[in-house]
Every structure is written in structure tokens, then in C-alpha cells.
Specification:
The chain has 369 residues and is mostly helical. The chain has a domain of 233 residues. Helix content is 67%, strand content 0%. It is globular. The two termini are 27 Å apart.
């Protein structure tokens, strides 16, 4: 698919999906974990469990949150970059922008991890935002320097294929090849050698050096899906079918391979990328169908307000006392509600966060990185 087949428009479904994803980060996860513990309803109990990361191997719904965000970041690449190429903007003028974006996200990641405390010896250099920034940079460079859909698919398959081979056949001293434990996996071995400071998992870091390479794969997958959505070659329902069927194929492939090559979010195994990427494709297809094709849009405001300032609210949780504000206004009501006291406080936190973002939304203030 070449740039000449790209048309320009903004997807309401993409902003909504990003906000839906961020909702679980800014309090939705805690809300449903709490409800699951307090309620005797099987559905709430099950979903509360799904709102926790698996300890190592396996997959819960909450394990999708981060890769879905990276997938969405990839979907924006054709919108943010390839459309500019179509307008005659040179690639060389775009390189500084994507490098700047990566650097800013890395710096934000440092701040989020507490770098301003200046305790360099115990500081964690790997971060969620840093991984997003570097993976976005690498995926953008691939998209800008390839022309056809086929070549981009080869890059996607090549990244995940080579990554799988590294995890499966490269021996780790003292453990050997293909050991999928926190201590024996190749990711942790490389992090322990090359990453200074502390590691999130002690012997490994889920946003470590190899994980960034793997995460580039799902970001690139998002970019491929963005090309499909922007293409004039397909009708809207065809785009939905491609996304949903393609996603189901990846889900099946990741699930089947899981028998020999485990799904591990903390190590971003290729099977994890296939499973999370497939689910992300299905979600994007469904959101696109409902919001941009069927035009059922009235319900999207809540999530769009969050999605349009996703980095803002992520960083704001570091220094805005949302929990204290909720406690100040709702502490009495929460105390009177008995066992549901934490639920009232959490609902208050989400409400305060949303009102903060709604204020920015009404003032047209959006943090652009």
C-alpha cells in the first residue's frame, strides 16, 4: 500500500479506544478489583481477578492495557507522518520530530520513576513512557523508509521472528537456552548486564532492552492497521473484516504456540505480542465499526476526554493529589457507606481526574508530545 492511497481524516474511534484503555490505568482497574473483593457476584469477582497482572506466564485482561496503548500509538503513525509525506514534506524534516518525541517521552519516564529525587544508584532507568517513545521511534523509521505493505509486514514478522529465536536458542550462562523463568530468560540476563540502577522485577525489567525491541513489533502492527484504515482501496466494512479476521488469526496463532513458547507479558514474548496484538486489532475493528461506520457516537465523550490527554493524566497522577481531593469531598459519605467505603473514594478519584481532563478539553488544552 503506497502513500498515494491514503486519505486524510481523524478517527473518533481511535481517540475513544485510547481513552477506554487509559481508563483502566487511572482507576478503573482499582475500582473493579475492589468490587471483585467486596461483591459475591461471580462476574465481578472474575473481572476483578482479570484486573491484575498475571504473576509470570499467562494472560489477564489487565495485561492488554500497555500493549494496546503501544498498538494505538502505532495506528497514529500513518496519520501523523505518512500523510505529511503525501503533502510533499520531506522525510529528513520528519526525523527530528520523531526523535524529539522519543526523547521527551524518555524524560517523562524518568520523572515518573522519581529521577528528581536524585538517587542515581537505585533509580530505575527503564520506563513505560521510555518504551513507548523508543518503540514509536523505531516503528516510525521503518514506516518512513519502506514503501509497500508487503515490506512492512516482513519487518513486523522479522522483528517478532528474530526476537523469538533470541529467546528460544540463545543460551544464558548458568541456565542454557530457552529458559522462561525470571532468572533464566535472556531478557533478564541482558538487563542485568547493560541496564544501570534498579530493575523493576529484581532480575529483569518488563520495560527492559529486549522488551523494547519486541514492543516495536506491536507498534508496527498498529501502524499497519492505521494504513488499512486510511486506505481508499477498501470499503469501511472491508476494513472491519480485515481487522477482526486478522486479529482472530493472531489470537489463535499466539494461543496455539503458547503450548511450546509461553505467553509472558513481563518478557514480551512473541506469543504475547501475537495474542495482545490480535485482541488489539479486534478491539480497533469493533470501535471503528460502532463509532465511525455506524456513527453511534453519543457515548464516546467520557472516553475521548481521557484519550485526548492520555499522557497528561498519566503524568498528573505523579503530582496531583487526586486521592486526597476525593477523600476531602467524599470521606464522610464513604465512611457512612460501610464496606463500600473504598469504592466511593475510588469513584471520587476517577470523577476528579475526569473533571480535570474535561476542563482541559473545554479549554482546548492538549499535551502534544
Amino acid at each position: 500500500m503506497t502513500e498515494s492511497k491514503i486519505t486524510q481524516h481523524r478517527l473518533l474511534s481511535l481517540d475513544t479506544l485510547r481513552g477506554f484503555d487509559m481508563f483502566w490505568i487511572i482507576g478503573g482497574d482499582i475500582l473493579f478489583r475492589t468490587l471483585g473483593k467486596l461483591s459475591d457476584q461471580p462476574v465481578l469477582t472474575w473481572w476483578g481477578t482479570q484486573m491484575e497482572h498475571v504473576e509470570w506466564k499467562g494472560f489477564h485482561a489487565y495485561d492488554l492495557v500497555f500493549p494496546l496503548f503501544m498498538f494505538i500509538a502505532g495506528v497514529t503513525i500513518p496519520y501523523a507522518l505518512l500523510q505529511k509525506l503525501e503533502k510533499g514534506v520531506s522525510k529528513t524534516s520528519l526525523y527530528p520530530k520523531i526523535f524529539k518525541r522519543a526523547v521527551i517521552l524518555i524524560i517523562f519516564g524518568f520523572i515518573y520513576n522519581g529521577f528528581l529525587q536524585l538517587d542515581v544508584s537505585t533509580f530505575r532507568y527503564a520506563s513505560v513512557l521510555g518504551q513507548i517513545g523508543i518503540a514509536y521511534l523505531l516503528a516510525s523509521l521503518i514506516m518512513l523508509n519502506t514503501k509497500s505493505m508487503l515490506s512492512r509486514i516482513f519487518w513486523f514478522a522479522g522483528i517478532l521472528g528474530i526476537y523469538a529465536l533470541i529467546q528460544l536458542i540463545v543460551p544464558v550462562p548458568g541456565f542454557g537456552p530457552g529458559v522462561f523463568t525470571p532468572e533464566g530468560i535472556i531478557n533478564g540476563y541482558i538487563d542485568r548486564i547493560f541496564l544501570p540502577g534498579s530493575l523493576y522485577g529484581g532480575t529483569f525489567d518488563p520495560e527492559g532492552l529486549l522488551c523494547i525491541v519486541s514492543a516495536t513489533g506491536i507498534t508496527l502492527l498498529g501502524a499497519l492497521c492505521g494504513l488499512i484504515l486510511l486506505s481508499k482501496q477498501y470499503r469501511q466494512y472491508s476494513k472491519v473484516l480485515i481487522l477482526v479476521i486478522g486479529g482472530i488469526v493472531l489470537i489463535i496463532l499466539g494461543s496455539v504456540l503458547n503450548t511450546w513458547y509461553p505467553v509472558i507479558k513481563s518478557a514480551w514474548t512473541t506469543t504475547f505480542n501475537l495474542l495482545a496484538g490480535g485482541i488489539s486489532m479486534v478491539l480497533l475493528g469493533v470501535f471503528y465499526l460502532v463509532i465511525d461506520v455506524w456513527k453511534f457516537q453519543g457515548w464516546t465523550l467520557f472516553f475521548r476526554v481521557i484519550g485526548l490527554n492520555s499522557i497528561t493524566i498519566y503524568m498528573a497522577t505523579c503530582f496531583v493529589p487526586f486521592w486526597e481531593i476525593s477523600q476531602f469531598f467524599l470521606g464522610g459519605l464513604a465512611r457512612l457507606s460501610g464496606t463500600f467505603e473504598p469504592v466511593i473514594i475510588i469513584l471520587g478519584v476517577i470523577t476528579v481526574e475526569w473533571l480535570f481532563l474535561y476542563f482541559l478539553y473545554k479549554k482546548r488544552i492538549f499535551l502534544k508530545v
